[in-house]
């Protein structure tokens, strides 16, 4: 085991990034024209990185498996993006955003990285406004903010419930400008199948043209992986169906350490599972917790009546409802962090208070907000004696202006009107804080291979605060990577074009083709989805919202057996040299079957509860925090980075100790 060097700059926290930028090596504009960079993934992190690097003068190749970068999963982000501009005058600052992020991540992230993230957050908003992103505005025309879980200020900028889509269109427009200039070559409907190393450095990728089936070689002086997270290892998640771990996992197999794979975020406000044939889950934005109140009935007889269809939730009085987040966490109420809200919902449902037929749902109710906004709107409209119906109508109009598309989406899926009856929600897998280990420069343990956005192990520690994913992705792409990658590339100004007719590319292509042949040669007993669903059930039941030693050990063994069966018996129809979506899925599920085992191994080794990783053996036994997660700073105050050694069970652990000089380590409390 080695101790990892994160290359954090010396000096005071607030000066680290400025001093680092002032002292790292640069590449002059004339030399940038001779340097090639591959960017895999064109969501917010990849799209912003590609546009920025091309604008600087580098030659960029982008790869995405979608038919257009506009279809990256970043469009699904709904609620907003954080930035410490303090437009509300409620006490926000770079330090406050930094503190909230470290605390929200349960003290399992790097201080230096998180402070840099807070420091550049304001620049992101300026950049996006300049691109024309239609952020919501207040009456006077200033940008509006709302609040999100785990904070006591309003710092989230938003565009209704479509923030990710609007931000991605901004990055995509910046990319298009560079495509038209010839500085970006876009390879859509292409999937990276392997990373190519030459003399220990990342020098290219092997990709498959998903339309023709052709295997292609692409070289570059550096490779940036911005391919998102691995939540689909659970099969059912809020991720797009195509979201996968292949690019990151291929790099891991080539020597990039994989950090904290067990850190997975369970989002508290998702539409509950409806049946065995469901293929994904739908997220209802956390922004809804600004105005929605979460509750279950106080009495089990009311629960039974609701499940049987004999009682409607609107028929229960305030006294008959348990607003359990407001009861347990009075300081933050419905805006506790996601991990806290998710565990609280699970606790109520496990205790028998779940309100749908499966017993796995709680209510998210907007009746109070509709009345509050309606009365306010009536007053500002000069209506001094409005009727109850007028107040309700005005309140619904305000809610529609803030969340209208989310309410519409819920009604289309559930066939219930959330203006008139409470939404039903339940936690679901959403985001992954784990990913490829990177240093302060966003470089992995492979020289020349960088990871940005959700693909790296992130700045979010063990739990991401809401509206921080978009912030991190755009910070990495627009304001961090364009500086730090130059430090590495300054050594390549005399290297010249990287050839693809070399033994390293030959070997990588051969291994890719052999793997595809092996996938196609299964006995054909079961479909790819059969194995993916089985893996998902193991992951959710034994590595999901809570974990324990016994079940994690079972999961490791079960996944290994399932993986062996997959390679022998999977059925992949079609041919290799043509469009073949089942072959695409098979390759991705093969990687999930390896990642899943490493995930369980990491969760087993981390015998503490922190953030999204809740070990049943590690809970507070007494006092005000009784029953809450118990962190173990003495033994686990580090990033766990795993080195590939063949089978996941043989992965070798490397540690990066986390040093806290500016924030006091203490028990998280939202009470």
Summarize the structure.
With 671 residues, the protein is α+β, with helices and mostly antiparallel strands.
What can you tell me about this protein's structure?
Residues 532-670 form the Fumarate reductase/succinate dehydrogenase flavoprotein-like C-terminal domain. It is a peripheral membrane protein. The strands form five sheets. Strands 5-2-1-9-17 form a five-stranded parallel beta sheet, with helices on both faces. The protein folds into three domains: 13-263 and 433-492, FAD/NAD(P)-binding domain; 272-428, Alpha-Beta Complex (Flavocytochrome C3, Chain A, domain 1), CATH 3.90.700; 502-631, Methane Monooxygenase Hydroxylase, Chain G, domain 1 (Up-down Bundle). By secondary structure, it is of the alpha+beta class. The protein is built from 18 helices and 19 strands. Helices cover 39% and strands 14% of the residues. The two termini are 39 Å apart. It has helices at 16-23, 29-32, 44-56, 94-104, 111-131, 163-181, 246-253, 300-307, 324-328, 338-353, 367-380, 388-414, 469-489, 503-520, 528-543, 549-569, 581-605, 633-636, and strands at residues 36-40, 59-64, 81-82, 156-157, 184-188, 190-198, 201-209, 215-219, 222-225, 258-259, 264-270, 293-297, 321-322, 362-365, 423-432, 435-436, 449-451, 638-643, 652-657.
């Amino acid at each position: 085991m080695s101790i990892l060097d994160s290359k954090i700059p010396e000096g005071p926290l607030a000066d680290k990034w400025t001093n680092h930028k002032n002292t790292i090596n640069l590449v002059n504009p004339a030399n940038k024209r001779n340097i090639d960079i591959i960017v895999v993934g064109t969501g917010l992190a990849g799209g912003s990185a590609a546009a920025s690097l091309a604008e600087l003068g580098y030659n960029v190749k982008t790869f995405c498996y979608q038919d257009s970068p506009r279809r990256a999963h970043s469009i699904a982000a709904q609620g907003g993006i954080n930035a410490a501009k303090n437009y509300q005058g409620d006490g926000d600052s770079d330090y406050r955003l930094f503190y909230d992020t470290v605390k929200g991540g349960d003290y399992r992230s790097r201080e230096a990285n998180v402070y840099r993230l807070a420091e550049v957050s304001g620049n992101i908003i300026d950049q996006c406004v300049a691109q024309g992103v239609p952020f919501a505005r207040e009456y006077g025309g200033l940008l509006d903010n709302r609040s999100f879980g785990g904070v006591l200020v309003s710092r989230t900028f938003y565009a209704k419930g479509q923030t990710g889509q609007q931000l991605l269109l901004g990055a995509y427009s910046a990319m298009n400008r560079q495509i038209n200039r010839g500085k970006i070559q876009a390879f859509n409907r292409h999937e990276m199948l392997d990373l190519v190393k030459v003399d220990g450095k990342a020098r290219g990728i092997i990709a498959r043209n998903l339309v023709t089936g052709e295997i292609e070689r692409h070289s570059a002086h550096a490779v940036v992986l911005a391919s998102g997270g691995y939540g689909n290892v659970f099969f059912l998640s809020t991720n797009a169906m195509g979201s996968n771990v292949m690019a990151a996992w291929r790099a891991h197999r080539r020597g990039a350490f994989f950090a904290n794979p067990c850190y997975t975020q369970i989002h508290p406000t998702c539409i509950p599972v409806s049946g065995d044939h469901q293929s994904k889950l739908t997220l209802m934005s956390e922004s809804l917790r600004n105005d929605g109140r979460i509750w279950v009935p106080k009495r089990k007889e009311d629960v039974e009546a609701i499940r049987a269809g004999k009682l409607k939730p609107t028929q229960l009085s305030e006294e008959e409802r348990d607003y359990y987040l407001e009861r347990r966490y009075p300081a933050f109420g419905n805006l506790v962090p996601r991990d806290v809200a998710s565990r609280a919902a699970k606790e109520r449902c496990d205790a028998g208070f779940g309100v749908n037929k499966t017993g796995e749902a709680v209510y998210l109710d907007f009746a109070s907000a509709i009345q509050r906004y309606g009365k306010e709107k009536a007053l500002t409209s000069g209506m001094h004696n409005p009727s109850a119906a007028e107040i309700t109508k005005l309140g619904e109009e305000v809610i529609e202006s803030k969340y209208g598309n989310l309410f519409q989406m819920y009604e289309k899926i559930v066939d219930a009107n959330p203006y008139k009856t409470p939404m039903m929600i339940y936690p679901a897998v959403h985001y992954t804080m784990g990913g490829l280990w990177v240093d302060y420069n966003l470089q992995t343990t492979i020289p020349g291979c960088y990871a940005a956005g959700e693909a790296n192990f992130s700045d979010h520690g063990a739990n991401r605060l809401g509206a921080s994913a978009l912030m991190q992705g755009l910070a990495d792409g627009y304001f961090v990577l364009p500086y730090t990658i130059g430090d590495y590339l300054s050594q390549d100004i005399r290297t010249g074009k990287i050839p693809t007719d070399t033994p390293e590319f030959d070997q990588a292509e051969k291994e890719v083709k052999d793997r595809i042949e092996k996938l196609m040669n299964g006995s054909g007993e079961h479909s790819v989805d059969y194995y993916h669903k089985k893996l998902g059930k193991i992951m959710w039941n034994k590595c999901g919202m809570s974990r324990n030693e016994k079940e994690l050990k079972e999961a490791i063994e079960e996944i290994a057996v399932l993986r062996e069966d997959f390679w022998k018996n999977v059925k992949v129809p079609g041919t290799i040299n043509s469009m073949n979506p089942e072959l695409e899925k098979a390759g991705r599920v093969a990687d999930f079957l390896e990642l899943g085992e490493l995930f369980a191994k990491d969760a087993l080794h981390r015998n503490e509860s922190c953030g999204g990783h809740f070990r049943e053996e590690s809970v507070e036994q007494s006092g005000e925090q009784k029953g809450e997660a118990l962190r173990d700073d003495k033994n686990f105050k580090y990033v766990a980075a795993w080195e590939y050694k063949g089978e996941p069970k043989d992965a070798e652990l490397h540690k990066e100790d986390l040093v806290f000089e500016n924030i006091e380590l203490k028990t998280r409390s939202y009470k």
